[in-house]
Design a protein that fits this description.
By secondary structure, the chain is mainly alpha-helical. It is 44% helix and 0% strand.
């Protein structure tokens, strides 16, 4: 993961580094398929 400490949105918009692109793809993948944790005693439904 890329550290975003001290970075502005403008910095991110102009950054096309491979590390940032990889991190964005990882986060967007999690947004597209969110995990649901409703409690209970069963195992998690998804293991990444």
């Amino acid at each position: 993961m890329v550290s975003l400490t001290g970075r502005t949105l403008g910095d991110l918009r102009s950054d096309d580094s491979p590390a940032l692109i990889e991190t964005m793809q990882l986060v967007l993948g999690q947004v597209q398929k969110p995990r649901a944790n409703l409690g209970g005693s069963g195992p998690p439904g998804r293991a990444d």
